[in-house]
């Protein structure tokens, strides 16, 4: 069982109370002491020093912490613990939240909730970062496109291709958009394989065999595949407080 007496409690007898959260007194009066916060149904262990990065908490702490302490020594905050975790992480490490899923994209509802709580606790930098939607700059999508064409195998009626066999990192995705077309291919009068679909390759010998006949073409099935490559690029610096 937790012993509330074992947790050092703030002593601010010599501190000069600030007039408001937006105008706190110098931080030199704040001790380094652990605190237990009961936020909704979850507990958070932190320190006075960490919480003091929030002007609102700093005022409360310097004023003797006017939140009601519970029997177990923790202090209760009526807030969503999932949202509060982002606030506390920013106060601790200066890391901005990124609620992003590669399939669903950004969780704008989460950003709105964090922004609202950041306003409540006067965490201005976090609030501004969210309201300016700076998180949209953290994940950038680089897109490239190419077209692959392969003739249909006349005997098997298949495309002898391994276009779909791709190995890539988790941040890279390939999309394939196939289409089937019939194209006319030039046929050499002499049946020279190297001259197939290459009329410029035929010389005098081919012309003599062709005589007065018109150029011969045959229909050939061609599978064209547009390959779109998407790469997600993460800018780590934009998630760190300057």
What are the defining features of this structure?
242 residues, alpha+beta, three-stranded mixed beta sheet, three-stranded antiparallel beta sheet
Could you outline the blueprint of secondary structure elements for this entry?
Elements: E1 34-39, E2 42-47, H1 48-51, H2 55-62, E3 75-77, H3 81-93, E4 100-101, E5 105-106, H4 108-120, H5 124-131, E6 139-151, E7 172-187, H6 204-210, E8 216-234
Parallel strand pairs: 1-3
Antiparallel strand pairs: 1-2, 4-5, 6-8, 7-8
Can you put this structure into words, describing what you see?
The structure is a single chain. The chain is of the alpha+beta class and 242 residues long. It contains six helices and eight strands; from the N terminus they run ββααβαββααββαβ. The strands form three sheets. A three-stranded mixed beta sheet has the order 2-1-3.
Give the ordered list of helices and strands. EEHHEHEEHHEEHE
Arithmetic mean of pLDDT: 81
The total strand number stands at 8
User: What is the 3D shape?
Assistant: rod-shaped
Which stretches of 5+ consecutive residues score pLDDT under 50?
1-19, 24-30, 155-160
Question: What percentage of residues falls in helices of 4 or more residues?
Answer: 10-25%
Q: Decide which structural class fits the backbone.
A: alpha+beta
Terminal-residue CA separation: 41 Å
Radius of gyration (CA) equals 34 Å
Strand order of the largest sheet: 2-1-3
User: Quick one: biggest sheet?
Assistant: 3 strands, mixed
Number of helices: 6
Query: Which percent band covers the strand fraction?
Result: 25-35%
